[in-house]
Amino acid sequence: MDATDARILLALAADPRATVVALAEQLSLSRNTVQARLVRMEQGGVLGSFERRISPKALDQPLTAFVTAQVNQHQLAEVSQALADIAEVVEVFGLSGETDLLVRVVAADAEDLYRVAGQILAVRGIERTTTALAMRELVPHRLTPLLRRAAEGR
Amino acid sequence: MDATDARILLALAADPRATVVALAEQLSLSRNTVQARLVRMEQGGVLGSFERRISPKALDQPLTAFVTAQVNQHQLAEVSQALADIAEVVEVFGLSGETDLLVRVVAADAEDLYRVAGQILAVRGIERTTTALAMRELVPHRLTPLLRRAAEGR
DNA sequence: GTCACTTTTGAGCATATTGCTCAACTTGAG
DNA sequence: CTCAAGTTGAGCAATATGCTCAAAAGTGAC
């Protein structure tokens, strides 16, 4: 990904529904170029799944919580699969140390969250968990600052 | 958001570049309906920014880390602003307790991460931090399971 | 059941976009 | 210089979009 790609993505971030023609005009590039680069980015894994744009709040899951878990590392694969089977589990990272997991979950309300936390703790191979509720989104997910830097070639 | 909206989003998740016409046909809905619902979702905040689809790896920031920080809660606003000024800070949550922050950062390499962690610790109002590197993405961000549930009206 | 209200549908139409191809022109690396 | 890759402008057929409208179908209140 070069600076031009970053400029295209920035324009798209500003207006997700912008057409290729509009992007080309705005960026003073040929339509062909924008089209080719977009295809390349889409196929090259620069763009993740569309699901990422969907807000869980719209799915009546306004609560976000982070569960850290200690696992028996021999059962990491099974644990990982069991967590993936829980719908409310949105994202799981293996943290440094190989024994700690960070599980991002969403829930409809406090009771729902309690239930999900219980499901996680019940997974075979998970030893200990702590749950922290996300009270405020102080900085909503964003990549614009990095995109801007990349667009300027730095 | 109702079950029909969820079905539209599911179809879009499967093929982000699908046209409205294709979605309508696939879902056996009228093109008008799909178009109207998409506009409504886009304007109603169901869809978050396009940036969410961009992979930081493509921006030469293959490392993800989670920094937890303790803050003086009287300075929460200033701290929040200072964190937002760091480009590598991708997302910040205020966790239950009002005194803990979870900061998601990306970095180019270990050295870069060290630098960013230092910047965070240097923010006035931040008392203590711990940094955990995300070694593996065990469950990549996904909403499909919840979407499927919503699509079935449960 | 009836009324009012919202949503969906199908149709139509002008305009814009897409996907594709091609040849010519730049650009940077070796 | 020479090659390979990227960009550009042009063109073209097929398709999608944005918009409007009126009729049909659901929905909930009473």
Relevant terms:
154 residues; alpha+beta; Arc Repressor Mutant, subunit A; Alpha-Beta Plaits; 2 domains; 6 helices; DNA-binding; DNA-binding (chains A, B); WH_DNA-bd_sf (chains A, B); Tscrpt_reg_AsnC/Lrp_C (chains A, B); transcription regulation (chains A, B)
Give a structural overview.
The structure is a homodimer of 154-residue chains. Chain A has 154 residues and is α+β, with helices and mostly antiparallel strands. Chain A has two domains: 3-50, Arc Repressor Mutant, subunit A (Orthogonal Bundle); 56-134, Alpha-Beta Plaits, CATH 3.30.70.920. Chain A is built from six helices and four strands, in the order H-H-H-E-H-E-E-H-E-H. In chain A, strands 2-3-1-4 form a four-stranded antiparallel beta sheet. In chain A, helix 1 (3-14) runs antiparallel to helix 6 (144-151) and helix 2 (20-27) crosses helix 3. The longest helix of chain A is centred in the first third of the chain and has 13 residues, at 31-43. Chain A starts with a helix and ends with a helix. The model of chain A has no long low-confidence stretch (mean pLDDT 95). Strand 4 of chain A pairs antiparallel with strand 2 of chain B, so a sheet runs across the interface. Chain B binds a DNA duplex (30 and 30 nucleotides) through helix 2 and helix 3.
